[in-house]
Amino acid sequence: MAHLARQESNKPVLIGQISDIEVIPKKFLEAILLDLKKLGFVNSKQGKGGGYYLAREPKDISLASLIRVLEGPIALLPCVSKNYYEKCDDCPNEGVCTLNKVMVELRDSTLEILENKSLESLK
């Protein structure tokens, strides 16, 4: 995504070019770009001058949204995740769990940073 963000005039880039420059296996990159296309982060153009390009301006794509779709939850523990919450098996009462309180604070701090940074900041 950072490679696409660095393109002048949002020109389409071939998968092979991204793969070579960023040293990412081509098959792995193809799978990622297909997922990102389905989710509306990138578009593709076929034929001469084709390739992948950003569907939105880099400034409009938060790092938090990218991390969520590529890696999953931002929270380190599922019991403090806003979007992927799961009850902790080891904790009978989250309300009195001291680790939970710290992890919520860490999640909130991390989210604040990632939501306020965009793909533009990686150029």
From TrEMBL:
Superkingdom as given in the UniProt entry: Bacteria
GO molecular function per UniProt: DNA binding; DNA-binding transcription factor activity
InterPro entries in the record: Tscrpt_reg_Rrf2, WH-like_DNA-bd_sf, WH_DNA-bd_sf
Keywords, sorted A to Z: DNA-binding
Any one GO CC term of the record: cytosol
Protein name (Swiss-Prot/TrEMBL): Transcriptional regulator, BadM/Rrf2 family
Organism of origin: Chishuiella changwenlii
